[in-house]
């Protein structure tokens, strides 16, 4: 399922993948439930962090 997902996701890609809203994703990023980093004002989310989050929640 995640073979076509890039190794580093943008904020929008992550939001679309998880099917959640902007505020929900921001909460997950700020509370470090999903590990991520910023380049300038842009969020970058490693695919591995999203997979780990899905496994933990599932």
Can you characterise this structure?
- This protein has helices spanning 11-18, 22-30, 47-57; strands spanning 8-10, 37-39, 42-46.
- It has a 3-stranded antiparallel β-sheet with strand order 1-3-2.
- A hairpin with a 2-residue loop joins strand 2 and strand 3 (42-46).
- The protein has one domain (8-57).
- The chain contains 3 helices and 3 strands, in the order βααββα.
Pick out its properties.
58 residues, globular, single chain, three-stranded antiparallel sheet, 3 helices, alpha+beta, 3 strands
Largest sheet, in brief, is: 3 strands, antiparallel
Helix and strand run? EHHEEH
Treating each run of at least 4 consecutive H or I residues as one helix, how many helices?
Answer: 3
Straight-line distance between termini: 15 Å
Question: What integer is the average pLDDT?
Answer: 95
Count of folded domains: 1
Tell me the helix content: 40-55%
Q: How many DSSP E strands?
A: 3
The low-pLDDT segments are none
The strand order across the widest sheet is 1-3-2
The rounded Rg comes to 10 Å
Shape: globular
Oligomer category: single chain
Indicate the structural class: alpha+beta
Strand fraction equals 15-25%
In short:
This protein has 58 residues and is α+β, with helices and mostly antiparallel strands. The protein has one domain. 48% of the residues lie in helices and 19% in strands.
